[in-house]
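Budget justification note: compute hours in this period were largely spent on complex prediction jobs such as the one shown. Inputs:
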Amino acid sequence: MTIGLNDYITLSVILFALGFLGVLLRKNTLVIYMCLELMLVASTLALVAFSRFHGMLDGNVFVFFILTVAAAEVAVGLAIIVALFRRRQTVQVDELNALRD
Amino acid sequence: MSIDYALLFRVLLPEALLTATALLVIGVDLVWGRGRSRGSRLQMAVGAGLLGVGVAALVIWQDGAQGSVWAGNLRVDLLAVAVRLGVLGLTGLSLLGLTGSRVSDQPAEYVALALLATVGFLQMAVAQNLLLAFLALELASLSLYVLAGYDRSRPESAEAALKYFLQGGVSAALLLFGFSLLYGMTGRIDLTGISMALAVHSDGSLSAVAVGMVLAAFGFKAAVAPFHPWAPDVYQGAPPMSAALIASAAKLAGLAFFWRIFWSGLGPLAATAPLLGGAGGGWVPVLASMCAVSLLLGNLVALAQASIRRLLAYSAIGHAGALGLGLLSAGEVGPGPLFYYAATYGLATVGAFACLAILDRAGDGDRIEDLAGLRRRSPLVAACFAVCVLSLAGIPPLAGFFGKFVVFAAAFRIDGLGHPAGWVALLAIAMSAVSLYYYLILLKQAWIAEDVRERGPIEVPPAAALGLLLAAGLLVVLGAFPSLLLGRF
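Corresponding output:
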């Protein structure tokens, strides 16, 4: 059995869906961050697979930039968590309800 | 394919200038600001920031529209020039408003981050390539997340930043996955190539998923229902001028960005992408129904709000519905009405938030009752607040009225009521009447209600007063002479 484009795209869709469900269902902000990263990485897998399929480098170059953006996003996100934890002593999203109607 | 690097440098000069200013502000603050008061450090940072913004605007103004640059990866057309100037103007006003806000510990970093966000906005206005577009969007968003959480003395600020970050992160990931599917279908990452490839051949279900994901990202960026939940929390919890930047410049740049993606890139799918259960209606009806829900939800929920900023947030969700309508009709009538609406809406929002920032500095709360007696406590703030709120409500002859007028007229011009946009425009007109009620409640408190607590007059720093007067004055001038902007498209 050879592994083709469809298998890679299926895997990437599964990873993306896992990440998305994690963001929706998990309560711990750090785990939600990991799920966000999983969604980004799923997109990079799709990009690399498509890039190979089309025989062009565009998608591969895209991935380099996405990895950089993902790192920056984690830096900002963790900084926000630290700022929040100092004030509220919690990282559980369901305890963050100071702002509501 | 030869590339004119001199031209490329010239087009990117404003971004380079702003980045240099941002670094300079931090450096000068580090060396010169040591041992000085927070007030004078803030003045230095805002002064330098305004200088950078002004020079960048001058460069853009002088160069004008230059067409496609860098092998078509950047598109400097009339809309790009207008949006870039508009974004710089709104950033400048936000910086002026910053002098009237509570002074934070690190004013220089705040200004630097605002400038970096503006670099992202400027790039969003010209990007004609998925990779550049994504990077510009992320640069702007990451800076805005930090700005939303900048007030470390208040727990709500960090909570607002976290909520903004989480929802923004999901929307960015959706957009990216949508982009990767578009690349997979077409083999191109430039919008022109994508459009040409989609016109020839598009895989039905795959294109539906891709378009759906891009629509979700648009919904987040413009706060269109059902992707709006971040807006009320961020408007309420973030420092006022951060919220102003998020609500004005970010929206203007975001609309230009999605105008390009939807009409230059996904234009061929406008009526054919099999969204909505494969009925084959394209993304136009889906966007129209998102706008309708947004108009209803935003304006009706705003009626029940007790917090001024939450009220403005829900009214912004209502306005986002009208902006989405502008985006829908922009394919037929051009982006002129959309730009006019978004720019004047941004002006009014920045002005209103600058007023709220001044109240916040004076130690007042965020309840509607806290506005009581504003007329006696500070006639200037009360007058500018009234102009901005009336413009948001769409009262002639202010700019907000013409913004609504041209967008609704454009929606009817497509095909009257034969097109979904016509029905959404009817709904938007009805909802404008509803919105008048809650906007007038704000003004009634500010102008008629007496202050039972007998609070003293409010001190307004001169630079903040200048910002307020500029915003209010522009709303009046652009309302009296809408052709100043509209005549150029």
